[in-house]
């Protein structure tokens, strides 16, 4: 909605402001900006020589190139500059300061929805000078969510936005309802910038069909991709494959969020699990062998799983995940923890459907419950299979790093017997 509103607004603004852009540029050029980074104005003291290196010059040639006015008459032919009106205080701020202020105006969300009443679009509508400056600052254009609806306008809009982001790394999110039809145009726009992808989120719907799109432009071309989120609804395996195939070519990928209503262990095993530090899984149907997936995740530090039910054959060898620090798991999946040995565990969260969440943290424990008995010796020594029997709580001389999971489980037990038994099981995994 915001996107469409913005699109209908943009052309008129562009049209209106073209006429006075040249004047603004002329005055910019005659002023010959050379702004030095946040330096106090002590007129008598010459700046240390190192300041010279920090000088931040506005490159007028580059500015003109960016707003697309350099293709006809050259700027040396300067139009008449009309007498300047009395400047308002804000207009006297040097561009370097303004650019910092502008950066603070960008919405905080990871993938902001473009909106003409918010930065950066709003900033570009204030005055010709602000517009020029906004368009010349690539870091204002590095995060974007596209709710794709209309090929004609959305493709043009996305291309324009991304072209303004210069060579900065990108946080990009797109939601596409394919409706079983190809939408390659918009995908190609994003893929052309694949080398700059850093955090990317795809929300794909209605692709329960033959292969319908390709990510070839991005394949082997995503050196900076650090985090990827996939939200799929009614997407067939053949249409999930381009995504898993793409991710296998991402050397820096460390975080994956996979929300797929059609659970499938084989698909997850195609992901580059070995290097991941963060994995979040949520699926509405089917079942999954979590151990088979986690077995590949040797470097995992944080895991969040809420669906589907697990199918873990009894009698499996416990799996050691040496680096796992935090677990966020839904209450009906806690039996997975019986099969895990987690020597580095620091935090367990158990969520229920009603969003009730129990959070166990070492620090809150040691502050609020200082008198509970310390960890039994064996637990302080090293990993113990989570399936070991409940330890007896006995005083011990072994120093403990501030966390007694068994003691905490007992406290919780007093509050809520059912949930606490689950927590107890999770805590035994803490070893
Ligand atoms: C701008 O400043 C530079 C360096 O101080 C100088 O070489 C150049 O001639 C100036 N340009 C104008 C248009 O005043
Ligand atoms: C200014 O930008 C132009 C065009 O992008 C570039 O060719 C030129 O080298 C730049 N000048 C300076 C001083 O950076
Ligand atoms: C991208 O998102 C991450 C959080 O996931 C954030 O730390 C980073 O600042 C964002 N980058 C941009 C350019 O918005
Ligand atoms: C893991 O990360 C390293 C370093 O970035 C990379 O070279 C390697 O290809 C990655 N391995 C896998 C299986 O993705
Ligand atoms: C834990 O996961 C649930 C859903 O699976 C989520 O709603 C909640 O925000 C997560 N908590 C944290 C602290 O990540």
Automatic annotation (TrEMBL):
Segments for region (Disordered): 363-407
Keywords: Signal
Domain of life: Eukaryota
Keyword Transmembrane belongs to the record: no
Protein name according to UniProt: F-box domain-containing protein
Natural source organism: Agrocybe chaxingu
Lineage: Eukaryota, Fungi, Dikarya, Basidiomycota, Agaricomycotina
Leader sequence segment: 1-15
UniProt key word Hydrolase: no
Comp. bias (Low complexity): 385-399
InterPro entries tied to this protein: LRR_dom_sf
């Amino acid at each position: 909605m915001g996107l469409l509103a913005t699109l209908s607004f943009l052309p008129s603004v562009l049209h209106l402001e073209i006429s006075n852009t040249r004047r603004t540029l002329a005055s910019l050029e005659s002023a010959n900006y050379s702004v030095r980074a946040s330096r106090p104005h002590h007129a008598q003291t010459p700046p240390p020589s190192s300041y010279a290196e920090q000088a931040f010059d506005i490159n007028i040639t580059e500015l003109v190139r960016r707003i697309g006015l350099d293709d006809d008459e050259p700027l040396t032919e300067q139009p008449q500059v009309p007498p300047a009106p009395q400047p308002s205080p804000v207009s006297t701020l040097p561009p370097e300061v303004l650019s910092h202020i502008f950066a603070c105006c960008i919405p905080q969300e990871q993938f902001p929805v473009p909106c003409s009443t918010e930065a950066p679009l709003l900033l570009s509508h204030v005055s010709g000078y602000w517009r020029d400056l906004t368009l010349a600052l690539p870091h204002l254009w590095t995060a974007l969510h596209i709710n794709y609806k209309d090929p004609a306008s959305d493709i043009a809009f996305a291309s324009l936005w991304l072209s303004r982001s210069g060579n900065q790394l990108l946080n990009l999110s797109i939601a596409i309802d394919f409706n079983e039809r190809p939408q390659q145009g918009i995908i190609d726009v994003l893929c052309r910038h694949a080398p700059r992808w850093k955090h990317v989120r795809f929300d794909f719907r209605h692709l329960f069909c033959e292969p319908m799109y390709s990510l070839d432009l991005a394949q082997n071309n995503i050196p900076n991709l650090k985090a990827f989120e996939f939200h799929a609804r009614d997407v067939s395996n053949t249409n999930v494959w381009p995504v898993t195939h793409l991710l296998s070519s991402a050397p820096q990928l460390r975080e994956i969020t996979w929300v797929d209503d059609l659970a499938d262990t084989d698909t997850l095993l195609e992901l580059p699990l070995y290097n991941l530090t963060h994995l979040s899984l949520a699926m509405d149907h089917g079942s999954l062998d979590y151990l088979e997936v986690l077995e590949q995740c040797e470097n995992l530090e944080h895991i969040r799983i809420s669906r589907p039910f697990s199918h873990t054959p009894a009698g499996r060898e416990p799996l050691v995940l040496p680096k796992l620090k935090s677990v966020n798991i839904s209450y009906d999946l806690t039996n997975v923890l019986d099969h895990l040995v987690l020597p580095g565990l620091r935090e367990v969260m158990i969520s229920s459907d009603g969003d009730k969440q129990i959070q166990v943290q070492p620090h809150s424990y040691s502050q609020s419950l200082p008198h509970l008995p310390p960890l039994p010796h064996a637990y302080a020594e090293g990993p113990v299979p989570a399936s070991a029997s409940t330890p007896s709580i006995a005083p011990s001389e072994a120093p403990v790093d501030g966390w007694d999971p068994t003691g905490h489980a007992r406290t919780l037990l007093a509050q809520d017997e059912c949930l606490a038994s689950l927590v107890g099981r999770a805590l035994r995994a803490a070893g």
